[in-house]
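Submission sheet (multi-component)
Chains listed below:
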Amino acid sequence: MNIPPVQPEDEQLIEPVGYDFGLKRRAFVQLLGAGLLVAVSATPALAQRRGGRGGGGPGNIAARVHLGKDGTITVMAGKVEGGQGARAELSEAAAEELRVPVSRIQLVLADTSLVPDDGITAGSGSTPRTVPAVRHGAAAARELLINFAAKRWGVEPGTVQVQDGKAIHSSSQRTLSYADLAADEEAAKGLDQAVPADVALTPVTEWKVLGQPTPRPNARDLVTGAHQYPSDISRPGMLYGKVLRPPSYGAKLTAIDLGPAQAMKDVVAVRDDQFAGVAAPTTFLAEKALDSIAKTAKWEPAPHPASKDLFDYLKQHVPGGVPANPFADELSHAKHALQQTYHVAYVQHAPLEPRAAVAEWTDGKLTVWTGTQNPFGCRSELARAFHLGDQQVRVIVPDFGSGFGGKHTGETGIEAARLAKAAGHPVSLRWTRREEFTWAYFRPAAVIQIEAGLDDKNQLACWHFININAGGSGIETPYLAGKHQSQSVRSESPLRQGSYRCLAATGNNFARESFMDELAAAGGVDPLEFRLAHLENSRLREVLETAAQRFGWKERIKQKNPKLGIGLACGTEKGSYVAACAEVEIDPAGKQIAVRRVCEVFDCGAILNPSNLLSQVQGAIIMGLGPALREEMNFENGEVLNPNFRRYQVPRFADVPELDIHLLNRPNHDSAGAGETPIIAIAPAIGNAVFQATGVRLRSMPMRLPA
Amino acid sequence: MDSTITFTVNGQSRTVTTDPQRPLLDVLREDLKLTGTKYGCGEGQCRACTVLLNGKSVASCVTPVRDADKQTVLTIEGLAQGSQLHPVQAAFLEEGAYQCGYCTPGMIMGVVGLLSEKPKPTEDDIKTRMQRHLCRCCGYPNLTKAIHRATALQQGK
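Outcome: structure written.
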């Protein structure tokens, strides 16, 4: 199996807040603490600190697998669990190669003092990169056990097998365990060797654990409430924090009186340049204290465009202007020439657990428990903000309450740490839903312009595609086209923006797949046939043809019904392939779109955990209904107008369509990540279905029928 | 002005002296360290904070703690009997009805509340009640299976 190189993070959009609490600003710090500051003996975060293994690269075997003399097997990885299934998948990976059941694996994730730096958990990278890295480390440990046993027994390593965690010499019926290896001083030194690059991994045909449906190892703690999410972490003497937010985007704090908060018993208040916040023994008191100083704050507002003007604003703020179509000449000679513009609104991840962190200072060192997808990046952010070395900061990421690309930055940890520093106590900070909807970052909005021409055989003669602002994920067309160019150009985003499940690939596929349907209609060709006539990639063809066949496309497309439409779309991204067919119902008044049925076929190579994969595909489709039909950030005068679940309506039970999901297993292909790509086909399939029913083409996400 | 609130939480009598306006959610999490009940929105819109107050499911984020004075509260921590999971918990575990799991305690309490109010809920009862609960991972298919399994278990099927 080839391990793809770590990609530059060009597909991740990370915009940290950029806090700087340097020494020079000390003069601005106003510290208050009335009665509460009793000395507490802060217990060291964790006794078993091992230090300094976050250096990146494959490292030695011990950095990945720790074998206890008591038989415990601890595996370490720098990835996080936010519901996408990394914990089960990485446990399976280790169990497979160590030849033990998953239940034997104790998996430590994302503690920067304990685990290797496996990079950000994003871009569907855990499956193609971290699973092989864990497998290599575990396989190397297995080989050590074989060699240790062979040496002790004086037999050939080839005659030793590993089963259920034991090396076995079957002819002499002798066994040795991983615990025996750990207890042998000489043999255990082998664990300090680098993971050999050529260590043999278990071939797919011999997988016993990988490829099997595997529940999340800590699932029981989820249903009992025992699992501690970042917002559940409690430390001795801990206070609850609140941070003052500007009344509008870009507003600058010019004055504030901390007095009213100071007057409250047990409340700590701090201002440090633009940062102001409070900490108190309860969230309720912290809120009261914050309200009291917010009333005294003076702000200097800044102009900010409204969402109703957003798309013009984005077009007008492209540095150097929007590039012209280099194929204007080809377009003018085409039999059918088409140009269209598509829009994608800003949307929010709205993870159910808002950003949360607990920060604790001990002897000048900082420990932060937080829900981030980027533990080592978050550590760097903290180190920068407080002018510390990386080794003075420890970030621990408990399995957290979802991210979807929305938790790549470390601002909450920094804010909690700033408050903790002022208070001299650990501080827990959990953003409110309103804060999350306003001060977190958003999936970039986009203006997408496409121009293309068909020749007299209805083949694409030229293709020009521009994404303004949202980025280049999934921008290259998988379809054959004569002269073609696809490009993304920057603009000035009015909102803080960042990654989101599949990032720009959702908008790019929405525009491309809608436009392909428009071209098919212009040429008078069936949308399925039109796509197949331009597709060479066999895996993409197969998902598309399978979806169409399962859905009964060829028969159903012949029927016309103004209240019931069908549409399809396909795409490829991050090494996986997806196609969806959707059936939509239009209400009698012709205003509401309801998605009744979705058939989606997905191919992500060799399937590692089919039950988790199915959950990811289901979740991606249903989540995708939100930005397709309803979700968009509305803002005016620098204020978000819909910062709550009442006005920003995410999918609920009643939105779930009938789902027919088919997972195409490809044992001969490397496994690709699967948490993202299944989201890209749903919006265009819906838009195409609405067109098929009504003849109305919806070119803006979220899609709404004209009133 | 602080008040003394005495209530039964998961079968135990608890007393807190606190501002009676504080959300029940905060008192459970911060004073009693029962963190299984989650904050999701603070407005009763997501129901991650669902607990049972006298057997009925409520959004604890918008329930002032004074409403719980001399009343009975059941949280996710009080559901299992020792190591024996409540049937609704068992159904969620069996069906893999979690992704990140953050909505799970509230969902489970919502189903327990529904079944205690209506031991034989109709499909419409289930849909109407569970429509209040949000799962941002959109794990609704497995959640739906778990709810049906739990309902069947309740009815001894």
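Remark: The helical segments of chain B are 24-31, 87-94, 104-117, 123-130, 140-154.
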